[in-house]
Specification:
Elements lengths: L13 E4 L2 E2 L2 H11 L11 H9 L3 E10 L19 H11 L17 E13 L3 E5 H4 L4 E5 L5 E10 L4 E6 L21 E6 L7 E12 L9 E4 L11 E3 L5 E10 L8 E5 H14 L5 E2 L2 E5 L2 H7 L7 E6 L5 H4 L6 E5 L2 E2 L3 H10 L5 E8 L2 E8 L1 E2 L24 E2 L2 E5 L2 H7 L8 E6 L4 H4 L7 E5 L2 E2 L3 H13 L4 E7 L5 E7 L2
Antiparallel strand pairs: 1-13, 2-4, 3-4, 3-6, 4-5, 5-8, 6-7, 7-8, 9-10, 9-12, 10-11, 11-14, 12-13, 13-14, 15-22, 16-17, 17-18, 18-19, 18-20, 20-21, 23-24, 24-25, 25-26, 26-27, 26-28, 28-29
Length: 508
């Protein structure tokens, strides 16, 4: 990572990848942040034994990449963090080299020739045949990758495979001599407060050992779809990326990947991918060169308090099925929109992230039991998992300009103007013929519906899990729910393309 990505003046911490780019800018960051690192509490006596046992299995990862020079070629000033000790020096140096108007002398404002950019990260050997695990962002877009052993021996490595979703990569090199390898431990057995040891290559200072405790487990920081990090206060910095996090038995329990820091230096908040995740990813990359994740074929959303009240689910939990892929494994198994998945293959599902992770980690083709809640009752469905074909593909809904609000044509309910779907309305709102229900033509700006982001052109398909075809149907269902003492009503809403989602609206 370059210095340009650091924002020390921001008021909130930021997540930083830990790879180190060479150059004066990186050196300035090292000098700037070194004095701010918090002191580490003394750990147990076993730390020295762990370090001595495993340090030769920890390697430095050196990469090079050809990049196009931008701006004023060699006269471009490095981007340094405010307050850097080199900031004033470079400011004066580059201003003196530029002519009137801010351009460089001689009128050279071109980009210059391509140049080599180098970076360093960390990794560790898991097989004496020369198999290394590191982070994907350490080797991403590299033209050349080299592994540097603890004694300084440098060997060219080749890429076996990467998984961008978990930011992991596997490398292979030909050993010049016998190697020491480490094994994975069980990250599920870690407890809060357990001591852990990080070894890596911070700021190009290879073979660096730091220690701390497990601060938290299963941490979701919204950096990816399968977040479940180990949080530790062991000092890790840029350059530690891809390095191992050990328990006191010398087993790898995590791969150091991210830090949160306002300055770029360690403030005691670091994150490691747990070994349980790493081991499964590494096995597949070694076997197939790619990830083959399980696929259930459903779109899911959170079970909010309002939705849970509407579905009689106490306490709120699980993953609400908002849509079912017609070609996915869930369809023939009988899973439907409105079902709430509370258990998958014997594992409890507390929220949508839990379901995403456990499905992805399950073998393709395996038959599993999926426990759902439908209309307040638990049911078990047997599903044979398919394969997620394109995990990197992101499907984003494209919003079109909304037409001017239409006057109410039926009646208002829940702050909505509703109308029976007809040919003219389908054309106006670009609604597919396959979509059935009642179209929203206007939304009261002060209503709960507006807060839940309902908009003109949305189609209400079901109310309280019953199909509706007119505004009168909706009003009847709402009136009945009020009589039953319900505080909210659950709507199944479709956009013009037929993509479904559940929305709970207050009826009070």
């Amino acid at each position: 990572m370059t210095a340009a990505t650091i924002a020390p003046t921001r008021l909130r911490p930021i997540g930083l990848r830990l790879g180190v780019r060479f150059g004066l800018a990186a050196l300035a960051i090292g000098a700037f942040s070194a004095f701010g690192a918090p002191a580490q509490a003394r750990g147990p006596e076993g730390i020295a034994d762990v370090a001595e046992k495993v340090i030769d299995a920890v390697v430095n990862i050196s990469t090079s990449q050809t990049v196009e020079a931008k701006g004023g070629g060699s006269n471009t000033m490095p981007q340094l963090p405010p307050g850097s000790p080199f900031e004033e020096f470079f400011d004066d140096f580059f201003k003196n080299r530029k002519g009137p108007g801010g351009g460089s002398k001689g009128g050279d404002n071109g980009g210059g020739p391509p140049r080599k950019a180098n970076s360093l990260g960390s990794g560790f050997i898991i097989d004496t045949s020369g198999v290394v695990v590191t982070n994907n962002h350490v080797i991403a877009d590299a033209d050349e990758i080299n592994v540097i052993l603890n004694d300084g021996t440098k060997i060219k490595a080749e890429l076996v495979g990467v998984d961008k979703k978990t930011d992991l990569a596997v490398l292979k090199f030909k050993p010049p001599k016998p190697l020491i390898a480490v094994k994975f431990g069980d990250s599920d057995k870690l407890r809060l407060g357990d001591w852990v040891v990080a070894i890596g290559n911070p700021f190009s200072l290879g073979g660096t050992v730091t220690a701390g405790i497990v601060s938290a487990k299963n941490r979701d920081i919204s950096s990816g779809p399968y977040d479940s990090y180990i949080q530790t206060d062991a000092a890790i910095n840029r350059g530690n990326s891809g390095g191992p996090l050990f328990n006191l038995d010398g087993d790898v329990v995590g791969v150091n990947t991210l830090i949160i820091s306002p300055s770029g230096g360690s403030i005691g908040i670091g994150f490691a991918v747990p070994s349980k995740t790493v081991a499964g990813v590494v096995d597949q990359l070694r076997q197939f060169g790619e990830l083959r994740r399980g696929w259930l074929g459903v779109r899911i959303q959170s079970v909010t308090d309002e939705i849970a009240e509407s579905l009689n689910i106490k306490p709120p939990r699980g993953a609400l099925v908002a849509g079912v892929d017609d070609k996915g494994p869930a369809k023939p198994a009988g899973i439907e929109p409105g079902d709430v998945v509370v258990k998958f293959d014997g594992k409890d599902v507390k929220d949508p992230k839990d379901l995403s992770r456990v499905v992805a980690d399950t073998a393709v083709g395996k038959e599993v039991d999926v426990v759902i809640i439908r209309k307040g009752e638990e049911q078990t469905k047997k599903v044979t998992l398919g394969r997620l074909q394109d995990p990197d593909k992101v499907q984003a809904a494209v919003k079109t300009d909304e037409p001017p609000p239409e006057k109410p044509v039926t009646q208002k309910s829940l702050g909505l103007d509703l109308a029976v779907l007809n040919k003219d309305l389908r054309t106006r709102y670009k609604i597919k013929d396959s979509v059935k229900g009642v179209v929203v033509t206007n939304v009261d700006a002060n209503s709960d519906a507006a807060e839940k982001r309902l908009s003109a052109g949305d189609v209400i398909v079901e109310v309280a899990q019953e199909a509706v075809s007119s505004g009168a149907d909706i009003q009847k269902r709402v009136d009945q729910l009020k009589k039953d003492g319900k505080k909210s009503v659950l709507l199944l809403v479709s956009n013009g393309d037929g993509e479904l989602r559940f929305v709970a609206l207050s009826v009070q």
